[in-house]
């Protein structure tokens, strides 16, 4: 698989979507499994609540990874969860060009993550960790930090 820098708009070929249904895996194991999958190189890992046969509540674990990682990903899933089987299928992923920049608020700096399409910024999102640290440091609600970021973006003073 051709590797692209994360900030260049591109299409990832040879990706896989991997999924397992877990109706008897304790919830506290899920975060641990997620970390192991990310450490192994998974691009994304997420859980969705589902119902299985006999109307049992369960979780579907889904992830995206390159084909080269499938053997390692399968090993983690089989060793760290209660699944007896793994589904996977090819998928193509479009990735926007990405860049970051910093803005100054009265409490400090916040990193903005920008998504570009054809060189034009079409998405902007404040970095959660920066906002969280400012909220904790100054004892202000997190939503107020986010609001200050959005106000500054709207008036174009970034």
TrEMBL record:
The keyword Lyase applies. InterPro entries: Ni_insertion (IPR002822). Pfam families: Ni_insertion. Keywords: Lyase, Nickel. The keyword Transport does not apply. It comes from the Bacteria. Its EC number is 4.99.1.12. One of its GO terms (molecular function) is lyase activity. PANTHER family: NICKEL INSERTION PROTEIN-RELATED, PYRIDINIUM-3,5-BISTHIOCARBOXYLIC ACID MONONUCLEOTIDE NICKEL INSERTION PROTEIN. This is Nickel insertion protein. The gene is larC.
């Amino acid at each position: 698989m051709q590797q692209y820098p994360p900030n260049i708009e591109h299409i990832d070929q040879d990706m896989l979507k991997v999924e397992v249904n877990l109706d008897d895996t304790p919830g506290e194991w899920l975060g641990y499994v997620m970390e192991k999958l990310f450490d192994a190189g998974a691009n994304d890992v997420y859980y969705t609540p589902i119902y299985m046969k006999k109307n049992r509540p369960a979780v579907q674990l889904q992830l995206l990874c390159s084909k080269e990682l499938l053997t390692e990903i399968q090993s983690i899933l089989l060793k760290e969860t209660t699944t007896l089987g793994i589904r996977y299928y090819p998928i193509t992923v479009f990735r926007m060009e990405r860049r970051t920049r910093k803005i100054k608020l009265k409490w400090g700096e916040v990193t903005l993550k920008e998504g570009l399409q054809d060189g034009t910024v079409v998405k902007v999102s404040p970095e959660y960790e920066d906002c969280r640290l400012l909220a904790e440091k100054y004892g202000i609600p997190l939503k107020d930090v986010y609001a200050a970021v959005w106000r500054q973006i709207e008036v174009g003073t970034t």
